[in-house]
Design brief:
CATH superfamily of the largest domain: HAD superfamily/HAD-like
CATH topology of the largest domain: Rossmann fold
Structural class: alpha/beta
Order of helices and strands: EEHHHHHEHEHEHHEHEH
Number of domains: 2
Strand content: 5-15%
Shape: elongated
CATH class of the largest domain: Alpha Beta
Distance between the termini: 13 Å
Number of helices: 11
Largest sheet: 5 strands, parallel
Oligomer: single chain
């Protein structure tokens, strides 16, 4: 049996917070006078990766999305809409809190500056993480090896000494390919069982 991991790397979306993209498209579509499906179609290539890489700041995101939707939404209203699909995953937070001080705790997330600004004050637990590796700050995105290596650097451990949890199988597979112990995150209960199986 392997020893317990020295570091736990956690995804943000659908792990610490839920994001309902369908709700986001409905709300943005309604604001632009479009059906949700049309809003989703128009936004399919609207700078998501550029925003996640930090190539678009807050105003760049607003402009890109508004242009795609054919609507001019003022910044304050847009920022609220853009993050209106998040809810905190309250059930998982105590288990993550229990890892503080026992392992290196690193967030590893594909995200953009507006979502970070919205979620930080709503997730005070993030302040207790050892490091936050945010794609919009480091310029790399999952599943690129470089962003996992960035997380390992801040965790101060070898790949096999780290466990990684994400809700997207492709990102878990990319971690496994680097020798990290990747696990698919599904529910708070299964996360608890996975940690216990690793000796945490």
């Amino acid at each position: 049996m392997s020893p317990p991991p020295r570091a736990v790397l956690l995804d943000l979306g659908n792990v610490l917070v839920f994001h309902d993209n369908g709700l986001l498209f409905r709300r943005l579509g309604a604001r632009a006078g479009l059906p949700a499906a049309e809003a989703e179609r128009r936004l399919a290539g609207a700078g998501w990766t550029a925003a996640n890489r930090g190539l678009l700041g807050a105003e760049g995101i607003r402009r890109t999305v508004c242009e795609a939707l054919g609507a001019d939404v003022p910044a304050e209203e847009f920022n609220a809409l853009w993050s209106s699909h998040f809810t905190v995953h309250e059930e998982v937070l105590p288990r993550v809190e229990g890892l503080v001080g026992r392992v290196k705790l690193v967030l590893l997330s594909n995200t953009n500056v507006l979502h970070v600004a919205y979620l930080r004050p709503r997730l005070p637990l993030l302040e207790r993480f050892d490091h936050l590796v945010l794609s919009c700050e480091v310029g790399h995105v999952k599943p690129e090896p470089s962003i996992y290596q960035e997380a390992l650097k801040h965790a101060g451990c070898e790949p096999h000494e780290a466990a990684f949890f994400d809700d997207i199988p492709e990102f878990v597979q990319a971690a496994n390919a680097l020798g990290i112990r990747g696990h698919l995150f599904t529910t708070a209960a299964s996360f608890d069982a996975q940690l216990e199986a690793m000796g945490l």
